[in-house]
């Protein structure tokens, strides 16, 4: 917000106007209709009708004016012992920030109190959750309602399948980014019959108000923005270790939850019916377990689902980079990649960077940039604003570090809700498939989402563009050798990055072939940043 009182009033007035407009949009919202040509019955997805644990309640629009509070960060030369978070993670940690980070509902009176030290109850009198402030639930509900407007495909799936309750009896423990968009997915799973317990896959990604809104309707959420390392693992354990409740499905983003259950609760892990993983890093770890013969449950790799990969991993990551770097000053951009790797950018390279360089990460983990090496007494850390730090060398050189070296595109910008609808719909179908698959269909290995389901995800999103599929004639289907109802691509089909495109930044000027099968984006950089570092590997940037 502006420091000028007059400007601040104008901003609050504008915010109130926007809330009113969003209410009008919500009232006009109607369910999406999909062409009959693209429909697929839930029976074709190998689901069955069973009892339902409870439906998602409806919520009336909130009429209260939303108050925006300035983020009052205290700056220090170096993190204190109590405030310093662990410098490294043995398991991956993607990093995203709240979608409403610029204007988030906060209660400054208890900002310094750990949620673990509070006793909170929702309006139903239950306290099986741990969030920043349950009183933020109304504002969180508004954000969820707004997100639903651009997730009509997922809402359509919810309406089609909730009568059959394909997830009745499913006890899903999830570890993802807790945002308004994820909340739409969680409430869809509940509407389809599942019981859910949820935690965040990253210490900075949680929207506190959304976590409160989910807790208010009875979803056990253990997460808040700004968790410590100890808090992070405590929250995961609270989701898994619940007396009288044992998970039978896992939805993970990054592999931390899967690792925790595998290591600490091996008996629970053996009884899991299926794991759904959406990240490159998490999938990589699943394949490692499978190769070592330690994966004793079937797992679904939805990261490589074609529709999800094309929109989420490629277009979304690429287009959100410039959004993210706008959080700092624009002198030099240095996103790093090679997902899940460590020390892609080292302290030696950081020492040789030019003054004013921006350092940021497009990889999933927090290990690609050696941020731990910057936590030394001779360097001064200065918090400019949320997710933007100046690291100052003794000679006065400043390097701008975004999101403390964690995932850039969500920490410092946003991801379109429509893109997240594709990812969430893919995750929901994968859970339905694994949970309802007959015994023997999936063994103890990692599988791709069946191509017909992948194409079904795409078909659900076509009406958003006012697009309609025509149906193949019998003659056309015979000519192509396809079933007229699909799938239209073989299971091995993937979008590939052309390998013949020359890369001018290569030191010897030769053609560089993007490494495969890496799928997410890294960025080539200017050679002016270093004396001898000319380029950084990239993948799928020219699609």
How would you characterize the overall build of this protein?
By secondary structure, the chain is an alpha/beta fold. It contains 15 helices and twelve strands. It has helices spanning 5-28, 137-148, 152-161, 180-191, 208-216, 229-240, 256-264, 266-270, 280-291, 306-325, 347-351, 408-411, 417-436, 451-461, 474-480; strands spanning 171-176, 195-200, 220-222, 249-252, 274-277, 299-301, 332-336, 357-361, 380-385, 388-392, 398-402, 446-448. The chain has a seven-stranded parallel beta sheet with strand order 3-2-1-4-5-6-12, sandwiched between helices. Strands 7-8-11-10-9 form a five-stranded mixed beta sheet, with no helix packed on it. Helix 2 crosses helix 4 (180-191) and helix 3 runs parallel beside helix 13 (417-436). The protein is globular and about 75 Å long.
> Which regions have little confidence, pLDDT < 50, spanning 5+ residues?
18-110, 328-333, 497-543
Helix-strand category: alpha/beta
Helix content: 25-40%
Order of helices and strands: HHHEHEHEHEHHEHEHEHEEEEHHEHH
Number of strand segments: 12
Rg over alpha carbons: 23 Å
Instruction: State the strand order across the main sheet.
Output: 3-2-1-4-5-6-12
Beta-strand percent range: 5-15%
Spatial gap, N to C terminus:
38 Å
Overall 3D shape: globular
Q: What's the rounded overall pLDDT mean?
A: 74
Report the biggest beta sheet as strand number plus sense, adding barrel if it closes.
7 strands, parallel
Question: How large is the count of helical segments?
Answer: 15
Domain S-adenosyl-L-homocysteine hydrolase NAD binding: 313-415
Biased composition (Low complexity): 88-107
Organism: Esox lucius (Northern pike)
Keywords: NAD, One-carbon metabolism
């Amino acid at each position: 917000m502006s420091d000028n009182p007059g400007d601040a009033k104008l901003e609050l007035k504008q915010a109130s106007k926007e809330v009113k407009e969003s209410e009008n949009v919500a009232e006009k919202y109607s369910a999406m209709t999909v062409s009959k040509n693209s429909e697929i019955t839930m029976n074709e997805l190998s689901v069955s009708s069973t009892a339902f644990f409870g439906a998602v309640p409806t919520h009336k629009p909130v009429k209260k004016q939303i108050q925006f509070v300035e983020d009052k960060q205290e700056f220090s030369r170096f993190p204190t012992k109590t405030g310093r978070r662990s410098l490294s993670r043995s398991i991956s940690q993607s990093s995203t920030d709240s979608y409403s980070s610029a204007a988030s509902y906060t209660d400054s009176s208890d900002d310094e109190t750990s949620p673990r030290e509070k006793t909170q109850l929702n309006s139903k009198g239950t306290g099986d959750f741990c969030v920043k402030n349950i009183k933020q639930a109304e504002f969180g509900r508004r954000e969820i309602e707004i997100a639903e407007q651009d997730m009509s495909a997922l809402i359509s799936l919810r309406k089609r399948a909730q009568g059959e309750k394909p997830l009745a009896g499913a006890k899903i423990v999830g570890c993802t980014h807790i945002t308004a968009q994820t909340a739409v997915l969680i409430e869809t799973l509940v509407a389809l019959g599942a019981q859910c317990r949820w935690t965040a896959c990253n210490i900075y990604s949680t929207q506190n108000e959304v976590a409160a809104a989910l807790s208010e309707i009875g979803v056990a959420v253990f997460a808040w923005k700004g968790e410590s390392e100890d808090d992070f693992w405590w929250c995961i354990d609270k989701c898994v270790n619940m007396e009288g409740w044992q998970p039978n499905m896992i939805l993970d983003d990054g592999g931390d939850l899967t690792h925790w259950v595998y290591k600490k609760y091996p008996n629970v892990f053996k009884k899991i019916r299926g794991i759904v993983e959406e990240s490159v890093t998490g999938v990589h770890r699943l394949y490692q377990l499978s190769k070592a013969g330690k994966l004793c449950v079937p797992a679904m790799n939805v990261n490589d689902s074609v529709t999800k990969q094309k929109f989420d991993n490629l277009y979304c990551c690429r287009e959100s980079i410039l959004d993210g770097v706008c959080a700092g000053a624009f002198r030099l951009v240095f996103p790093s990649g090679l997902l899940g790797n460590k020390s892609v950018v080292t302290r030696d390279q950081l020492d040789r960077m030019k003054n004013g360089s921006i350092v940021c990460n497009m990889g999933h983990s927090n290990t690609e940039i050696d941020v731990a090496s910057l936590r030394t007494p001779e360097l001064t850390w200065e918090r400019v604003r949320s997710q933007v730090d100046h690291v100052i060398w003794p000679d006065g050189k400043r390097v701008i570090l975004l999101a403390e070296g964690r995932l850039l595109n969500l920490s410092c910008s946003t991801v379109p809700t429509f893109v997240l609808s594709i990812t969430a719909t893919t995750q929901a179908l994968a859970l339905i498939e694994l949970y309802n698959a007959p015994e023997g269909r999936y063994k103890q290995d990692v599988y791709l989402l069946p191509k017909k389901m992948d194409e079904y995800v795409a078909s659900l999103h076509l009406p958003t563009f006012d697009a309609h599929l025509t149906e193949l004639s019998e003659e056309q289907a015979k000519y192509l050798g396809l079933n007229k109802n699909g799938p239209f691509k073989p299971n091995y089909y993937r979008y590939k990055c052309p390998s013949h495109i020359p890369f001018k930044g290569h030191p010897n000027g030769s053609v560089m072939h993007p490494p495969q099968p890496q799928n997410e984006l890294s960025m080539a950089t200017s050679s002016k940043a270093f004396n001898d570092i000319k380029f950084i590997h990239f993948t799928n940037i020219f699609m």
